[in-house]
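The authors assume throughout that readers already know how a fold can be written as discrete tokens. In essence, backbone conformation is discretised, so a fold becomes a row of integers matching the chain in length. A single example would do more here than another paragraph of explanation. For illustration, here is how one protein appears when written out as sequence plus structure tokens:

…
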Amino acid sequence: MKIFAIVLTFNEARHLRRCIASLETVATDILVVDSYSTDETLEIARACGARVVQHAWMSHAAQFNWALTQLDSDTDWVIRLDADEYLTPELIEELSDRLPVIGPEIDGVYFSRRMTFQRRMIRHGGVFPVRVLRMFRYGRGRCENRWMDEHIKVEGGVLDLDGELIDDNLNSLTWWTAKHNSYASREAIDLLNLEYEFMPRDSVASLRGGKQSGVKRWIKEEVYARFPLGFRAFVYFFYRYFLRLGFLDGKAGTAFHFLQGFWYRYLVDAKVTEVKRHMQLSGCDAAQAIEQVLEVSIRGQ
């Protein structure tokens, strides 16, 4: 059985060795797709035995779908992992036991993903663990084409595993806020596209089947997106921090739930508002306003 792991990188020297080490007993091959890193990412990847290719970055979805075209044609399964993530020993053992006996009707495999923030595991707020489809049969899955919060889509049946992967980013809070500022622009594009439809919509949103990713996306697009800008960020934070007991995650958890559950969401709404204001003042369309205000080129996406 040939299992290819795909890891997308840009300046991930701090995390990559740990990520690859967790994949060594699961994946037969590891492909690192790098966006022209300037640190030691490439040297570490090659030293760990990974195959390395470089490709200019457009979006996470576009980069991953391009990476699929670089795999060997006799690949059986594909695993997607971010460089700051790693598989737990429990998940590795479960994959070793279950993969050989998975029937042909199964196209995708769900894992649970937990996140740390400032080295503390986030356990409350109704956020984690997140169920994510991170493994699929080669040729039967692709990443949905969107700017933010993209998921793998498969057509056939799926298998749910109990094991977890851990998202444990070791960078500073300054790096984290800069990254989420960039994420906010990308999420603003997806929200604007719901209203103005300047790009084809590609979404896993569905209430059928009860899958967490589909239900959460449906709530986000059909409920959350209809709430007033700004106010919805406060409602979401209140739900996470008070109703779902996010305050039990301690000081680091308070910072996480406030920054990721309120500040980030409010920043997305502020960017959406800024784009709409520019559209009114300049008379340009949504796509032009996004490029002029958010400084993000959406052509070719």
